[in-house]
Amino acid sequence: MKNTKESAPHKETVAVMGLGYVGLPLALLSRESGFEVIGFDVNENLVRKINDGICPIPDDEKVVSKFTENRFPATTDPKALAKADIILIAVPTPVDEMQNPVYDYVVGAATLSADNLKKGALVVLESTVNPGACEEIVRPIFEERGLKVGRDVEIAHSPERIDPGKSVFSKGWHIGNTPRVVGSFTKDGTKRALGFYRSIIDAEVRPMKSIREAEAVKILENTFRDINIAFINEIAQCFDLLDIDVLDVIEGAKTKPYSFMAHYPSCGVGGHCIPVDPYYLIEQAQKAGFDHKFMRRAREVNNFMPEYAVERMQDALNSIKRPMKGEKIGVMGLAYKANVDDLRESPAFKIIKHLKHHEADVITFDPHIPGKSDVKTLEAFLKKVDHLLVTVDHDAFKEIDPAVFKKHGIKVIVDGKNCLDKEAIKKQGITYRGIGRK
Questions:
Q1: Reported pTM
Q2: Is 419 known to be catalytic?
């Protein structure tokens, strides 16, 4: 049931630790809801920008507008945390090369919180963690300093729900109306966390029976997506051999009004959630003696897709009797998702690595990330390459007239996101391959 947004408590101060894509909007929403807000980050340049009135997420007009309307001070001084009644931790939780969770940022933020805590404060972790992390990693940091949970501090978890690539303050689902869950070690901790989130969010805030259940919610959400994406990626590989267009089949399946949820294949899964979060549960379950075979297989399938996209390029080149060695292949896109400049876990870099392994001459272009691109404009990019491998469905790419590709002599297009007009491209005499379509 939808929550009716409650009035913010009087005279309470919220400190937000980590002022990135999650923390900054959270700080702005808290400020807009009537809280005094302190922003904390170890990045001095980021803090300086915020204090100078420069929004650190300039590409999102709505965030810029909210930033202008709801200014708050930022600092790198952890002593400022002592003023906070509520501390929200929104720091990254990556995995290492062996796919094990790295909690260095969480440990650092929790340590600074514990060292500077105002007695009786509520500390809420928003970062995605495996079930048991708050109990095994966060809580001991406070207890080692003599802070008793339920007496000196309340610790809760409410996993963030932000969709990168869409404005966090846009129409539809956004940070202010997306339902949340909260869990804590104590009933009072859960009650306080519920009160806070219900005062800033106009949506249901569901209490979980334990903090471990709250941690498991986010892992379940993203693992569900990862497994279904892996399924459709495997189907796409099968359909390539059977000469079946996977997109047409998905559209047909979508006509069933129940028991089907469409997922789409692509050249890889990127971002800070889907390719990372399943490993949290895999690793934690392994410690408990359980092997997530299904989840591991899903990760294997999705991790293979960048290599498969390069195989599609090899297949297309073979069809026109061209080798990959020495061919000028343009990688269209570096970001992991459409219309963002976020590079985290982007499959584009794995694709580039595989292309270079085959001794292709690789040129890159992403209009959202000019600093990492080999060329600055689409025109310059198309002049330099003979073939294209599309790795992200930016609007700027989907709007290109296929005649422009023909004009620049493009011979092969591998559409790693199935986002281009296949028939229009083929009409130009260009060899086309998608993921599960040709």
A1: 0.88
A2: no
